[in-house]
Write a structure and sequence with these properties.
With 505 residues, the protein is of the alpha/beta class. The chain is built from 14 helices and 21 strands.
Length: 505
């Protein structure tokens, strides 16, 4: 009997490698049962990352291009990959046509995100035909899905490298193997990786910085692929995080966002101390950096101590992103969110009482399996009660490998679309009303750059995460300025530069 991945005797004349068989010997499909046992696995902290000497010049005279899909965590991963490639003497380019190495850093949250990646790969094929030395890689969350990798191996022969979320620190070796072996390199670990510190980064600008404080998620919401693509929850040591934030402060950054798939579960995996997100925020608020945010939080882990620390204000902004996902307790149970409607409303009330000027944003799914009209109405009523400033709303679509994918997707698409439209109408009405409350007030805006629609207009965010557009000189980019609000739309505010003596709301 042939070993997995070996060539049967009758096919010995074939020279084409059977990548699909190779892959099946190195990767196991997502297993909810196995994933829930993973808590006892040892995670190591590696602090001596460095690009090998023989790889530091491999990119000399070459350019790289990275296209990023999905969340801020992917943006952060892209910064790390850009740093590693720069240490290998590659030069970044924003023109994909002049790139010698192209990486697609992918997202697996929704099917539409995956389809975009497959479409982009189709566009890249002629470039590969014209330039066989071009290296094309697919990385990120999609690469952690067995079905996706099999599809890439079977259909997209223009892809040279496939690596996952736990393998980013292996990028130099992956690139070397792809260059010199002239064979496809597949490196996907189903086990979550170690925490690797001291990775190089090339950050976008010096205004806003992302700081990863933990990796992975242990919540196993039934619709979500993240616990499988990102692995179990692993927290970075507080001293490493604090030093990174101090480094950003020393380099003039105006805002830091602490990142995690479930950021307020931070520290729960520490065995040598009791230390959570509230403790970390309490230390970071003493660092001389104007604004500190965090995302994304889970209502189940949002404890009283964190609320108490956030209420101290200062550089801790009053914007809270708190994904509710649904307004009905029975659907929340089907989603395995592990809280009820009543618990969420109680939590929102606690935060509002402690931080009266708090602004809330959220995520909401409509059309989850078995959702009735009455249950959808519970979502509408919760939205009206909490009065979210903004929300990301989605139609449910099954993700292969998740428990919900085994449920009967029994809400017709037309019903889902209708519910989404009705939900968005309510959300938009609340957002507009909330924004109109800013009319004739003065707000502080972190100026992030030119408006996408008009280069003569500057754009930025308030501490409460409102987008503000105004006319002003370009030298204000990177500074926090006062703006008098004169116009309010559903998603944006507009105004004029205010007198420095003006009060701030």
């Amino acid at each position: 009997m042939n070993q997995p991945g070996s060539t049967p005797a009758k096919d010995k004349e074939k020279t084409t490698k059977d990548y699909a068989s190779y892959f099946q010997t190195t990767y196991q499909p997502p297993s909810l049962k196995d994933a829930k046992k993973r808590g006892k696995e040892q995670i190591n902290i590696v602090k001596d990352f460095a690009v090998d000497e023989d790889l530091k010049k491999i990119g000399a005279g070459k350019k790289f291009y990275i296209r990023t899909y999905g969340c801020q965590m992917n943006e952060h991963d892209t910064e790390v990959m850009a740093g590693i490639l720069s240490d290998m003497s590659y030069e970044a380019t924003t023109d994909i046509m002049e790139a010698d190495l192209i990486l697609l850093n992918t997202c697996a949250i929704r099917e539409n995100a995956e389809n975009k990646v497959f479409g982009e790969l189709g566009h890249l094929k002629p470039m590969k035909v014209e330039n066989p030395d071009l290296l094309i890689g697919v990385c990120g969350c999609m690469s952690q899905e067995e079905s996706v990798v099999n599809k890439l191996l079977k259909t997209y022969d223009q892809v040279d490298m496939i690596f996952g979320t736990h393998n980013i620190h292996r990028l130099p070796q992956i690139v070397k193997e792809a260059y010199f072996s002239k064979e496809r390199v597949v490196e996907v670990w189903s086990k979550e990786g170690d925490i690797v510190e001291n990775l190089p980064r090339v950050r976008k600008g010096n205004i806003k910085g992302w700081v990863n404080i933990m990796y992975g998620c242990d919540k196993f919401c039934t619709y979500c692929i993240v616990p499988y693509t990102r692995g179990k929850e692993r927290s970075r040591r507080p001293e490493d995080i604090i030093e990174e934030v101090r480094h950003l402060a020393r380099n003039g950054y105006q805002e830091v966002t602490l990142l995690g798939q479930n950021v307020n579960a931070y520290g729960k995996d520490f065995e040598d101390m009791e230390y959570g997100l509230g403790d970390l925020m309490d230390e970071i608020r003493k660092i001389d950096i104007p604004r500190v945010r965090f995302t994304t939080s889970h209502p189940r882990d949002f404890d009283d101590h964190l609320i108490e620390v956030l209420a101290k204000g200062g550089n801790l902004v009053e914007h809270i992103h708190l994904p509710v996902q649904h307004g009905n307790s029975d659907i929340l149970k089907l989603m395995a969110r592990k809280y009820t409607r009543e618990h969420f409303l109680e939590l929102a009330g606690k935060i509002k009482k402690a931080i009266p000027n708090a602004s809330f944003t959220t995520d909401i799914i409509v059309g989850f399996p078995n959702e009735t009209e009455e249950q959808f109405q519970d979502t509408l009523s919760l939205v009206k009660e909490v009065e979210f400033d903004a929300a990301y709303s989605f139609i449910y679509s099954p993700r292969e490998g998740t428990p919900a994918a085994k449920m009967k997707d029994n809400v017709p698409l037309e019903v889902k679309k209708d519910r989404l439209q009705r939900l968005n109408a309510v959300l938009n009405e609340i957002s507009l009303r909330k924004n109109q409350a800013y009319l004739d007030t003065v707000v502080e805006v972190l100026v992030e750059g030119e408006s996408k629609k008009n280069p003569d207009v500057l754009s930025g965010h308030t501490a409460s995460n409102k987008v503000v557009n105004f006319r002003g000189p370009k030298h204000l980019i990177g500074k926090i300025v006062k703006v008098h609000i004169t116009d309010a739309k559903t998603w944006t505010l507009s105004g004029d530069l205010a007198d420095e003596k003006a009060g701030v709301v």
